[in-house]
Amino acid sequence: MNPLYDHLFGRHAGSDAPFLHFADGSSLGYAGFLGMAAQFAHALTAEGLVPGDRVAVQVEKSPQALALYAACAQAGLVFLPLNTAYTIGELSYFIEDSGARMVVCDPAGKEGLAPLAARLGVGLHTLDAAGGGSLTDRAGAMDGVFPTAPRGADDLAAFLYTSGTTGRSKGAMLTQGNLLSNAETLVEYWRFTDADVLLHALPIFHTHGLFVATNVTLATGGSMIFLPKFDLDTALAVMPRATTMMGVPTFYTRLLDDARFTGDIARHMRLFISGSAPLLAETHTRFEARTGHRILERYGMTETNMNTSNPYDGERRPGAVGFALPGVELKITDPVTGETLTQGAVGQIEVRGPNVFKGYWQMPEKTAEELRADGFFITGDLGRIDQDGYVHIVGRNKDLIISGGYNIYPKEIELLLDDAPGVLESAVVGVPHPDFGETVLGVVVPAAGETPDLDAIAARLGESLARFKQPKKLIVLDSLPRNTMGKVQKNILRERYADVFTG
Ligand code: MCA
Ligand code: AMP
After folding, report:
1. Minimum-distance ligand 1 atom for the alpha carbon of 201
2. Which of 98, 227, 237, 243 is the most exposed place for a label (fewest CB within 10 A)?
3. Is 216 left (phi over 0), alpha (psi -120 to 50) or beta?
4. 503, 488, 351, 366: which is closest to 432 by C-alpha?
5. What is the pLDDT of residues 170-215, one digit of tens each?
6. 409 class by beta-carbon count within 10 Å (0-12 exposed, 13-18 middle, 19+ buried)
7. Pocket of ligand 1, candidates 160, 161, 215, 230: which has the most ligand atoms within 8 Å of its Cβ, to mutate?
8. d(Cα 242, Cα 315) in Å, to the nearest integer?
9. pTM of the model
10. Which of 178, 226, 181 minimizes the C-alpha distance to 67?
11. Dihedral sign, Cα of residue 47, residue 63, residue 145, residue 3
């Protein structure tokens, strides 16, 4: 028994139905995909990997990259996908912290990772954007059938790192049961069937593209138009062949900002889903006016998969994230006492259910801070439940910026800015951005008598931080606004610079 593999992948053995379609009109069927996955599973286990071992993967999106996820499920390995934008410094932490036994990277990253892999005694293979590389070469000689490793619902299936307010990333441990239960719930809630063709333009190193979109498709035997990234021209060209799309709000605003995105292109679609960041009510309304479709917004987290969703049949309410999914309990609590608040009051959102992760890898204190003994997970999001039961997210109890669907923790950037030459202290805030919804603004205070060189500071950040985390603008201030307790008043900075990118 291996619930994740059996229910999502193995059930399609021998099927000649298409699984992935590509922009050029070609397709890859389930049988071919599973054969590739089995070969990868052989290649990994031939390197000595055994169930429970972590496989860290930083590669471009390709069918082979997705097959690596299936291979890990089949061989009982823990899949650890990593953002392709991460620098060597960021990667080193993830690889070392997770105790990964194998790293699969793009050929361009091999030279940089080789010393680390050698020091840690970790295997290193390559996989390029076209699906070639040393892992594919090794797998090519292997059998296309692999004896599925026995696993249980409580066994780990994936590690996904999420940054923390202290600047140290935490490995969220997701079990087979977490992933499978959520996929099955979403299939029913969103009425996915094998007739669905999902326009897949999300990255596959985060929950949204890897689990929500892919697992729902696998659970029904449907197919996906599998694009390397969100490119407007390609998305418009393939949309007539799709029935559904999942995206972050930036996908929807980019579509709306293009006159070629007409009601005609979208009318045949069954469903548009948005998540990972707040969808402005204005985007919801503009989208409906243009296409007649009401975008279905849902709310989730890496640690929990999906928690709430607007209804399929009922009213999809702009600015709300809907109701707790079947099997998921959600409550609004007082951040200080933890007491459940009355309907309508704003408090922290807590969730419990089969979707909630097992804890943070080797961080029992962090786990205990956020995951209560009774199973409720403190999300760090602030919300309220309206008179009709819809959940609204009204803010965050954590210092977090969400830019184009990517999470950025200011602390990580502030630590680097504080260390930069000529800087006394710094503050990093999220400000509105027309394309990314919100983006990073850095404020630095010079040390006495110094004039910090902002270009040099930006270049320095570029060496250690993924591009999407780097401040889109740096500003110098004589001092930071502080309250009487000495705490930096980030709200004042956010207000003062609210129109830096939109004005
Ligand atoms: C790219 N850049 C960004 C971002 N993406 N900067 C800030 N925020 C971003 N999200 C940088 C590029 O490095 C580049 O820098 C410049 O912005 C313009 O790049 P562009 O080509 O326009 O970007 P793109 O390749 O089109 O990417 C934008 C994107 C992408 C399509 C919005 O970021 C994306 O696919 N986001 C989805 C993220 C996602 O899947 N999140 C789900 C997390 P320069 O020009 O200066 O070099 S899972 C999650 O949150 C939970 C579980 C949930 O609920 O789903
Ligand atoms: P991550 O850590 O990447 O899993 O991001 C999870 C966070 O994204 C949540 O805690 C929320 O703050 C945010 N998020 C996800 N979906 C939504 C949504 N529909 N509206 C507002 N915020 C969202």
Report:
1. 35
2. 237
3. alpha
4. 503
5. 999 999 999 999 999 999 999 999 999 999 999 999 999 999 999 9
6. buried
7. 230
8. 24
9. 0.96
10. 226
11. positive
State whether the beta carbon of 398 lies less than 6 angstroms from ligand 2: no
Retrieve residue 222's tokens.
């449907």
User: Which token pair is 160?
Assistant: 């996904």
Nearest Cα neighbor of 269 from 189, 196, 185 is: 196
Q: What number is the average pLDDT over the span 426-437?
A: 97
Say which residue the tokens 């990255």 belong to. 203
Ligand nearest to the CA of 252: 1
Contact 279, 255 (CB under 8 A): no
Token pair belonging to 129:
């954007």
Residue 231 has pLDDT above 70, yes or no: yes
Q: Nearest-CA neighbor of 405 among 276, 302, 223, 316? A: 276
Nearest ligand to the CA atom of 207: 1
Ligand positioned closest to the Cα atom of 305: 1
Task: Copy the structure tokens of residue 276.
Answer: 């990972």
405 C-alpha to ligand 1 centroid (Å): 7
Q: Is the CB of 467 under 6 A from ligand 1?
A: yes
- Tokens 């800015």 map to which residue? 417
Phi, psi of 138 (to 5 degrees): -65, -40
Confidence of residue 503 (pLDDT cuts 50, 70, 90): confident
- Per DSSP bridges, beta strands 54-58 and 78-81 are parallel
What pLDDT does residue 486 have? 86
